[in-house]
Amino acid sequence: xxxFDEIKTGGLADPATLQGSFLFAVFFTFLAWIIGRTLRVAVxxxxxxxxxxxxxxxxxxxxxxxxxxxxxxxxxxxYAHFIPALSGLGAASLTSIGMISLIVxxxxxxxxxxxxxxxxxxxxxxxxxxxxxQVNAPTGLETGTxxxxxxxxxxxxxxDNRRVVVPNSLMASLTSIxxxxxxxxxxxxxxxxxxxxxxxxxxxxxxxxxxGRHPKAEQVCGCPLTQLGDSGVVLSLDVWCADALxxxxxxxxxLEQAAKRFGVEGIHISTPQTMVVLKDDRHFIRVPxxxxxxxxxx
Length: 298
Fold this sequence. Notes:
This protein is an alpha+beta fold. Helix content is 48%, strand content 20%. It has helices at residues 2-9, 18-48, 57-82, 87-95, 97-107, 109-124, 168-173, 200-213, 244-265; strands spanning 132-137, 140-149, 153-158, 163-167, 177-178, 186-194, 217-222, 225-228, 233-241, 289-290, 296-297. Strand 1 and strand 2 (140-149) form a beta hairpin. The model is unreliable at 1-9 and 289-298 (pLDDT under 50).
């Protein structure tokens, strides 16, 4: 009966009481959740109706996530403003933003740095979702597709289905190579060495024929001789492919096909050879037999 009396007299809605503060907490939490969910659904519908890709998918998702976090922050500030016990905190959060930002900035420099770096990546747009990037990671040079840009880090998906997580601050400061910024096409140069006693023109004709028949080759540029090595010459087959993945497929297929075709046509792949010449007669081993004069030797 006490609860019904509180409802009639409006005691439950009094933020000065424990019940009222709890009710306001539930209300502001629910309101923030509703606004965040509405925003997420609106973004999904907006992207679904963007058939011609006029919108920047990465920027829309990043800003939508940032806005959802901001909704919860402002909901807490508004809740603190309504509750007398927290009114001082609410007023401070609304009127002393500079001081609070300074304190939080010292306490979370890396987090805020990644957030600001993410905003700079959206502003300068060095890459977008779906671009292939090369970045320096602790494991070495990594190549992957941009999968997402969050408030703190950039996620790359490699060709072997690994995820490279790069903080936005590093992504904005380090040098990265965008392989598909404007034109996704790449030129694939396949280096193949053949021995000096092989027919260079015949080997070149075979490589050009294999490249012209490959479905991943868009344009064959040529096959010049680029190097005179210690054990053979090196031919460079240059071909334009649709993208980096197509270039990898083309390189692997061509190496296998060239090895099989060269074996049939009598063209030898260059292999390292070492010739040792001993000039001191003490190192020679004499084998019994006839000399060039027909005299038996020991």
